[in-house]
Design brief:
Distance between the termini: 41 Å
Keywords: Cell membrane, Membrane, Transmembrane, Transmembrane helix, Transport
Family: Belongs to the 4-toluene sulfonate uptake permease (TSUP) (TC 2.A.102) family.
Protein name: Probable membrane transporter protein
Shape: globular
Number of strands: 0
Subcellular location: Cell membrane
Organism: Rhodopseudomonas palustris (strain ATCC BAA-98 / CGA009)
Structural class: mainly alpha
Helix content: over 70%
Order of helices and strands: HHHHHHHHHHH
Strand content: under 5%
Length: about 250
């Protein structure tokens, strides 16, 4: 099994895998930057496919650590929508613009964070089950396309104001299920090339180390600070996605 040897690939892949490790450890907002980083070298869907074995490995570590901390109601509400969103993404994977997906994900995240910051009391209002199904569908769609399901997921989950470890555990279970269900569609879309699979295996030790670092940080971060960091990370990544999507569209139009 071959691997990618270009050093420029690892210049973006190593930071991307480290960000995924922090995300799977609990800082979920930062994980959305991983695929855009890797997409500087590979097409976005191929980058998402290369990262999937890394994500699943990290999921297994986090599932063990947070197995006692999760909210069943949130999963029951969001997972049906996520499955529908993934089905739509699979169907449209060959025709949807990558930059359009970046703009949607970045716009959703930015509007949500600005609403929380400008209307702080609104962040404590829990959304309806229908809203949970909707945002679950958006999260499933964007997760399939770019491994970027975090912002739509957080639009519904952060206002629930769950205890820190419960939020992290619920997030871990949600995306572990989503990632496992991507294996078949990604295989059918031809994203698991020998070089990609070999490279994913080579990155696994770093992925495990980064995951443990994220778990260590989450357990030592006060709840209030944890939420402030989550919102700040979501803001930064959302702006970066908007910039990336707009700049690519402008370059394509000129």
């Amino acid at each position: 099994m071959s691997i990618i040897l270009d050093p420029w690939f690892y210049a973006v892949a190593i930071p991307a895998v480290f960000l995924l490790g922090l995300a799977k450890g609990g800082f979920s907002g930062v994980g959305i930057a991983a695929t855009p980083l890797l997409a500087l070298y590979l097409p976005p869907l191929e980058a998402a496919g290369l990262l999937l074995p890394v994500l699943i490995t990290q999921d297994l570590i986090s599932l063990y650590v947070y197995r006692h901390h999760w909210d069943a109601r949130s999963l029951k509400v969001m997972l049906p929508g996520a499955l529908a969103g993934m089905a739509i993404a699979w169907w449209t994977a060959s025709i949807v613009s990558d930059d359009a997906v970046r703009l949607i994900v970045g716009g959703v995240g930015l509007v949500f964070v600005l609403n929380v910051w400008l209307r702080p009391h609104a962040s404590a209002v829990k959304l309806s089950d229908a809203a949970g199904v909707f945002w679950g569908a958006v999260s499933g769609f964007t997760s399939f396309m770019t491994q970027g399901g975090g912002p739509p997921y957080q639009v519904y989950m952060l206002p629930q104001l769950l205890p820190k470890l419960v939020l992290v555990g619920t997030t871990t279970i949600f995306f572990a299920i989503i990632n496992a269900l991507k294996i078949g569609p990604y295989f059918l879309l031809g994203q698991f090339t020998p070089a990609n699979l070999g490279t994913s295996l080579a990155l696994l030790p770093l992925a495990a180390a980064a995951n443990m670092a994220g778990i260590w940080l989450v357990k030592r971060t006060p709840t209030g600070l944890f939420y402030r960091i989550a919102y700040a990370l979501l803001f930064v990544v959302s702006v970066a996605l908007l910039y990336q999507g707009l700049s690519h569209l402008v370059r394509g139009a000129t």
